[in-house]
Amino acid sequence: MTTLIIMLLGMGAGRFFPASKKKLNEQVQLLCTLLLIFSMGVGLGQQEDFFPKLGQLGIQSFLFFLIPTIFSVIFVYFLTSHFMAETEKNVRKPNAPGENPSKQRRNDPMVFLALGALILGILCGAIPPAAAFLNPLSSHSQWLLYLLMFSVGISVGLHKGILDKLRQHHVKICILPFGIVLGSLTGGVLCGLILNYPVNEAVSIASGLGWYSLAGVSISGLAGAELGSIAFLSNLLREIGSFFMIPYISRHFNAYTCIAPAAATSEDTTLPILIRYTNEETVVFAVLNGIICSTLVPVLISLCY
Question: Which long-range contacts (CB under 8 A, 24 or more apart) does 139-145 make?
């Protein structure tokens, strides 16, 4: 809720923000995004059992990330193509005059920068002196997120009439979280069949929707440490994987489908990559989707287990 309030404040500021400084605002977003990913990596590297968990449970966690995410993408694309087709003309982010959009995205180094920041963060976190030096950054990363959300709000506020467009959709706002949840649960069932897990356990893992901290803790309490570790890693992979899936999805599907892999994280950590590869209207949908999905995570885990 705090991030939503800060974004709304940024939207208000965006109405008075000089258009000539738009590029500077985008650079602030990029810097904050990379620092947040780096901070995430530092936190992972500091966990003593991170590397053993990654080796022992990696394949199962990867399947619990990949299959539910793919089903979410399929379901959201199908639903938005049929029920939100009238906004199809708005699904691509504007490009510079005369610039080929597919070429622009292929040449965009964001994916490599994000991967580099994550790997560097993990390596620094695994080295105690470096981790201690970077502890202030990790422990205060929420301020980076707040700055990022305010900057994203400015970008949205620079585009007049977005909220009016959203009011035209009404209940269609629920299509995105519905498709994401339905796809994730379907993928969870398939993972259970492939890996020979009870359906309730498999679906509970998929119900994390990218919120790895809550999913890991909740499922550990319900089913033990091993299943909790799979829930943690698979939902962590969903958050990280979104950074690399969204650019591809933006080239081959509509902008709304870019929100599908992000799921519950679309309101905060994956929001910068969404605004980079979609448009400001879609970003507002992403925030609302993230709030709804985050609210549903504890409910789904409890109901499904």
Answer: 141/35, 141/36, 141/39, 141/40, 144/32, 144/35, 144/36, 144/39, 145/3, 145/32, 145/36, 145/268, 145/269
pTM, 2 dp = 0.71
Model confidence pLDDT, tens digit, residues 55-76? 767 889 899 999 999 999 999 9
Q: What are phi and psi of 120, to 5 degrees?
A: -60, -40
Report helix angle 280-304 to 2-14, nearest 10.
Answer: 170
168: which DSSP letter?
T
pLDDT tens across 130-146, in order? 888 988 887 887 788 78
Alpha-carbon gap, residue 281 to 166, rounded angstroms: 8
Residue 113 CB neighbour total at 10 angstroms: 15
**C-alpha to C-alpha distance for 266 and 255, rounded to whole angstroms:** 13
Quote the CA–CA distance of 270 and 196 in Å, as a whole number. Answer: 32
Ranges of H-type helices in the chain: 2-14, 22-46, 50-56, 58-83, 101-106, 110-126, 128-139, 141-157, 162-167, 175-195, 199-206, 212-223, 225-252, 259-262, 271-277, 280-304
Cα separation of 86 and 165, whole Å?
12
Overall size of the chain counted in residues: 305
Q: For residues 246 and 254, what is the distance between their CA atoms, to the nearest angstrom?
A: 11
